[in-house]
Amino acid sequence: MAQFDSIIIGGGAAGLMCAITAGQRSKKVLLLERSNKIGKKILMSGGGRCNFTNLFVEPDNFLCQNPHFCKSALSQYTQWDFIALVEKHGIPYHEKTLGQLFCDRSSKDILTMLLTECKKANVTIKTNIQINKVTQHNNSYQVHTKNEQYQCNSLVVASGGLSIPSLGGSGYGYQLAQQFAIPCFETRAALVPFTFSDHYKPIFTELSGLSVDVEVSADNQSFREALLFTHRGLSGPAILQISSYWNNSKNVTINLLPDKQAETLLIQLKQTHSKSLLRSQLNHHLPKALVLQIEKLWWPEHAELALAEWNDEKLKEVAYQLNNWSLLPAGTEGYRTAEVTIGGVNTDYLSSQTMAAKNQKGLYFIGEVVDVTGHLGGFNFQWAWSSGYVAGMNI
C-alpha cells in the first residue's frame, strides 16, 4: 500500500491549491481526480478566460449558514496573494467590470501555472481514478481504488459540488462527510439561469439574445448588471447573481429603468411629447424589441394613442411595471448549467482556521463541497484558493 502524508480527492481549483501549499511544506502529496483531466472547470470558466479572482473580496460576497466562517481563510490567503502568483508566472490579465480579473489569453494559463507549481512541489497527480471506498484505521486513512490502495495521515475532500456534472461534478464529497458523521445542508443549483413555462416563455423566446442593463431583486437582495433573454427564460449576470437568493415560491422583481423614476419620466414625456406614442419615447431608453413586447403586455389598448390621450393613472400603472416588473420563474436550468452548488458540508463541524473536521482527526473539506458559495465575479475561485491554501498549511 503506497504511503503519503496527504491525499487530496479532487483536482479542481481548491485541490490544486491545497496540493501546492502542502507540497511546498515538503509533504508527500497525492492528488486523485476522477475525470480524465485536471482542472476542467478552470478551463471552461469565464468563457475560456478564467475569472480567477476579484479586486474587491469581502465576506459579504459569500453565502453561508454561518456568515462569519469564510473570514479566516479569506484573510489568510487574499486575492492579492493569488494575483502575486499570477504575476510571478507572467500571465497577462485585465479587469473586466466590478473588479473581475480575467486572463488576457486563456484559462489554460492559470491551469498551466498550477500544474507547474505542483510539479515544483513534487505533487503526485493521478487522473481517471474511481474511488471504491475510504476507510480509517489507527489514525490513518486508506483510499481504495479499482487497482490500488493508498494510505495517508491527512485526507482532504476537494471533490466539488453537483454543478455541471459533465465536467466532473458529483455528490461524492457529501457521501464522505456523512460517512464520517459530518452533516450537510441541502444543496441546490446557484448562479444559474431561470426558466419559464407560462405566457412569458414565448415572449422571452422572441427576445432571445437581447441584453439589457437592469436591477434584479429577490429576498431583500439586489444586483445591478446585465439581463439576457434566452429561449428558455432569463440569464445574464444579474439573473445568475439573484438565483443564489431565489426560492421556488417567490417572485423576482426586475427594474428595467434602474437609473430613472419611471413615473416622473412618463409624466414629463406626456407634457413634452404629447403627440408621441409611448413606445416611440421608450425606444430612447430600452431596446425596441423589448418595448414592443411589454407594450403587448401592459398597454395594448393604448398602443396607438398619443401620450396626450393617456390618463395619469394608466401612465403611473405602466411606470410602476417598468420599475417593478414582478415575475415568478418556473424553476432554474438546474445543475446542468449551474456554475456552483449552494449548501453542502455544515461549517459548524469544520475549523474556520484550518478547514479540518472538528470531530474527525486528519479530515479536511475545502472548496465548493463546503457550505460557502460566492457571488459571480471570481469569488468562488478565491474561496477555492483561500480554503485550499489554509488546509495545505495545516495538513
What does this structure look like?
Strands 1, 2, 7, 8, 9, 10 and 20 form a 7-stranded mixed sheet that branches. Strands 17-16-13-14-15-12-18 form a 7-stranded antiparallel sheet. It has a 3-stranded antiparallel sheet with strand order 3-6-5. The protein contains 13 helices and 21 strands. The model has no long low-confidence stretch (mean pLDDT 96). The chain has helices at 13-24, 40-48, 70-76, 79-88, 108-120, 172-179, 200-206, 237-243, 262-272, 278-282, 288-298, 312-323, 379-392; strands spanning 2-9, 29-32, 51-54, 62-63, 93-95, 100-103, 124-126, 131-137, 140-145, 149-157, 184-190, 194-195, 211-218, 221-229, 233-235, 252-255, 325-327, 331-332, 340-345, 363-365, 373-374. The radius of gyration is 25 Å and the shape is elongated. The chain folds into 2 domains: 2-189 and 340-392, FAD/NAD(P)-binding domain, CATH 3.50.50; 193-332, Translation factors (Elongation Factor Tu (Ef-tu), domain 3), CATH 2.40.30.10. Helices cover 32% and strands 25% of the residues.
Spell out the key features of this protein.
single chain; 395 residues; alpha+beta; FAD/NAD(P)-binding domain; Elongation Factor Tu (Ef-tu), domain 3
Q: Outline of this structure?
A:
This protein is of the alpha+beta class and 395 residues long.
Share of helix, binned = 25-40%
How would you sum up the major sheet?
7 strands, mixed
CATH architecture of the largest domain: 3-Layer(bba) Sandwich
Helix count equals 13
CATH homology group of the largest domain: FAD/NAD(P)-binding domain
- Please indicate the percent range of residues in DSSP E strands (runs of 2 or more): 25-35%
Radius of gyration: 25 Å
Compute the number of strand runs. 21
For this structure, the CATH topology of the largest domain is FAD/NAD(P)-binding domain
Shape: elongated
